[in-house]
Amino acid sequence: MTEKSNHQPNRLINETSPYLLQHAHNPVDWYAWNEEALDRARSEDLPILLSIGYSACHWCHVMERESFESEEIAKIMNSNYVCIKVDREERPDLDKVYQSAHQLFNKRGGGWPLTAILTPDELIPLHVGTYYPPQPRHGMPGFGELLTRIAEVYKEKDRFLPEHTVAVKDAFARLSATSQSTESSLDGELMQRAVEHLISDYDPVFGGFGEAPKFPHPTQIEILLSYWQRTDHSDSYAEKRSISMAVHTLEAMSSGGMYDQLGGGFYRYSVDARWEIPHFEKMLYDTAQLMPLYVDAGFLAGRKDFHEVAIQSGEWVMREMQSSDGGYFSAIDADSEGEEGKFYVWTLEELNSLLSGEELDVLTVRYGLRGAPNFEGKWHLQIANSIADVAHRVSREEGAVIQLLEQANQKLFETRSERVPPLCDDKVLSSWNGLMIKAMARAGRYLNRSDFVDSAERALNFIQNNMWQNNRLLATARDGRAHLNAYLDDYAFVADGAIELLQARWNDTYLDFAEQLVKLLLNHFKDPDTSAFFFTSDDHEKLLYRALPTHDDATPSGNGVAAQVLLKLSYLTGEQHYRECAIRINQALQNSAYQIPAAFGSSLIAIEESIAPGPTLVIQGDSEEAKSWVEESLETGSQRLSTYS
Q1: Cα gap 261→140, rounded to integer Å
Q2: What is the pLDDT of residue 637?
Q3: Packing angle, helices 450-466 and 508-524, rounded to 10
Q4: CB-based burial of residue 441 (10 Å sphere; 0-12 exposed, 13-18 middle, 19+ buried)?
Q5: 215, 219, 337, 553: most buried, per Cβ within 10 A?
Q6: Residue 196 parent element (H or E)
Q7: What is the DSSP string of 432-468?
Q8: Can you tell me the distance from the alpha carbon of 548 to that of 485, in angstroms, rounded to the nearest whole number?
Q9: Phi, psi dihedral angles at 85 (to 5 degrees)
Q10: pLDDT score at 177
Q11: Confidence band for 3, pLDDT divided at 50, 70 and 90
Q12: Can you tell me whether residue 499 is helix, strand or coil?
């Protein structure tokens, strides 16, 4: 394997994506996805090797080290293919198309790195997989061997390609078909059905849903909290279970290894069912979605510790994830110095050398540092015992325990800060910024943190000043360069963030901006058959198919959030047209939601809001009097009340 520094930079050196820049010194003759690459493939009749990943992806790094830095494999790639590297966070449109192809070809979900071989003319996938080792391993072919075999088969393309092309196009046509009805009335029972589905999938021992690996699934927790707020808190089984499942899951995540106990913020997922050991990448969108849940659940369940989680996470965002210009960064890598989690874990020798005897005693009981270390010979911190239990076991007052624990945590945090940190993907994505603007504005408003609201304002101003050009939104920005047409999620999430910010700090320009974004959605993204929104605009690059997202994924459904935004705008502006558009979107997605209602949380909340809107108050008059009234309403924990003043 050849070191990156020994190679002259390839074309990726001119890109803005940190992920693409990571590959700029590979011996592979990489292109970004652009006309130059596609023209070359067509003119030379070479198949395209498309590799899609992202900067915080562990297996993307592994495949780079094993294959893309290999002179031998790079030679096979360069001789037989036009090689294109794509950051899935910058080009989610391409990722959606070829992840769908993976599902069609392999009858199972894909992942990253995604590896696809495409025809040069119509970009039809010939082969789609994910990670491949350099040599055959565990039943997987070696990457070089696979590429050589496909290149040989491609020489016989006239024999099979016409029939294959028709079959793939037919499959995508069926995928694109919109069977949703827009005539049915909205079903107020769907949310209860979603709760019942979550009950059946719930882990009563460790919290969360399903088996390992466990993901946070914020929209599913939001279903539970929303359902609880909309009921009369009777003794029905579903109602009691909804709040208990939400609280149990939130507690398990924030006390476990999914949460950074020293620095705040959530890791991507837990590799085990107990929420103990995470995959250590930190994605902006996870913390952005979880923060408001901890705010709301803290009020609903009387859990001040949940509010502390939201506050610590917000402080992490401002400290590590916000640029001096205001935009929020995208992610922090799982690896540092070539090892996953190295930045976050501790040896007992380190703890002994850093802490006093009293601090170590408290820390050991608090984080359960007995027996064998829990991560590759080191300790990853997670809460094992409550403050009361720690106080009892070390024979100290709770106040003294808290003080010692704070001292110990601060020492560890300061020491950790001197380590080589994981790489930060410092590109600014409109969509994820919209999610975090909403989170910071909501947490700031409810928890009396004006600095959080300031942070949200700075981020929105960054988008307005840098990513809003020629009356259109752009998807990504880095180092003073914003580019790429924005997607449905960008428009919907930024508009939602702007409207949430209005509740914390009214500014007419934020309302105007949100309305501009929504009007662009209606003019450029709307499906004439269903009134729901496509993922890409009508003037976007034409791809194999135009996705119309319905269900929630790692982030909420753009259509679900757009429907919520339209409803909020109808209340703020008095324009019934927005409400009518939201109802049509809800009607379009409702039939799909019947199949797996828990996967449609953002849409179910929009449907419920259409049927039974929560109270919305717009207060005009003396600002101090308005502020006092709003603060009083916040103290009641009425999260369904939307207040603009």
Answers
A1: 38
A2: 52
A3: 50
A4: buried
A5: 219
A6: helix 190-201
A7: HHHHHHHHHHHHHHHTT-HHHHHHHHHHHHHHHHHSE
A8: 17
A9: -110, 130
A10: 66
A11: very low
A12: helix
Residues 322 and 329: their CA atoms lie apart, in Å, by 6
Q: Return the structure tokens found at 436.
A: 């975090």
Could you give the count of Cα atoms lying within 13 Å of 121 in the half-sphere of its Cβ? 5
**pLDDT value, residue 167:** 97
CA-based nearest residue to 86, from 109, 59, 126, 54: 54
Between CA 15 and CA 162 the distance in angstroms is 35
Report yes or no: 294 and 253 within 8 Å, Cβ to Cβ: no
C-alpha distances out from residue 276 to 58, 105, 214, 259, 412, Å:
19, 34, 10, 9, 19
Mean pLDDT score across all residues of the chain: 94
pLDDT score for 201 = 97
The pLDDT of residue 396 is above 80 = yes
Q: CA-CA-CA-CA torsion for 571, 573, 576, 578, nearest 10 degrees?
A: -90
d(CA 253, CA 244): 14
State whether residue 83 is helix, strand or coil: strand
* Length reported for the chain: 645
Q: Are 33 and 53 in contact (CB under 8 A)?
A: no
345 neighbors 379 (Cβ within 8 angstroms): yes
Class of residue 259 by CB neighbours under 10 A (exposed 0-12, middle 13-18, buried 19+)? buried
Are 350 and 408 in contact, with CB atoms under 8 Å apart?
A: no
At which residue do the structure tokens 């946070």 appear?
Answer: 216
Token pair of 42, please? Answer: 């067509």
Mean per-residue pLDDT for 207-214? 96
Q: What is the average pLDDT across 254-283?
A: 98
Local confidence band at 2 (pLDDT 50, 70, 90 cut-offs): very low
Q: For the segment 561-576, what is each residue's pLDDT rounded down to a tens digit?
A: 999 999 999 999 999 9
Q: What's the one-letter identity of residue 8?
A: Q
Q: Which amino acid is at 466?
A: N
d(CA 70, CA 73): 5
Q: What is the value of pTM for the model shown?
A: 0.95
Q: From CA 422, how far away is CA 392, in angstroms rounded?
A: 38
Angle at 591 between CA 590 and CA 593, to 5 degrees: 65
**Nearest Cα to Cα of residue 344 among 264, 250, 408:** 264
Ordered by where they begin, the domains of the chain are 4-176 (3.40.30.10), 188-315 (no CATH), 344-418 (1.10.10)
In this structure, what token pair is assigned to residue 508?
A: 């007419």
Residue with tokens 């939400």: 246
Beta bridge partners of residue 587, listed in sequence order: none
Check whether 244 has a pLDDT greater than 90: yes
pLDDT in tens, 106-118: 999 999 999 999 9
The pLDDT tens digits for 54-95 are: 999 989 999 999 999 999 999 999 999 999 999 999 999 999
pLDDT on residue 4: 47
Identify residue 112 by its one-letter amino acid code: W
**Residue with structure tokens 């995540």?**
253
Distance separating alpha carbons of residues 63 and 31, to the nearest angstrom: 17
For residue 71, the one-letter residue type is: E
For the chain, report the end-to-end CA distance as a whole number of angstroms: 61
Q: Does residue 207 surpass a pLDDT of 50? A: yes
User: In this structure, are residues 282 and 269 in contact, taking their beta carbons and an 8 Å threshold?
Assistant: no
Share of the chain above pLDDT 70, in %: 94
- One-letter amino acid for residue 273 of the chain: A
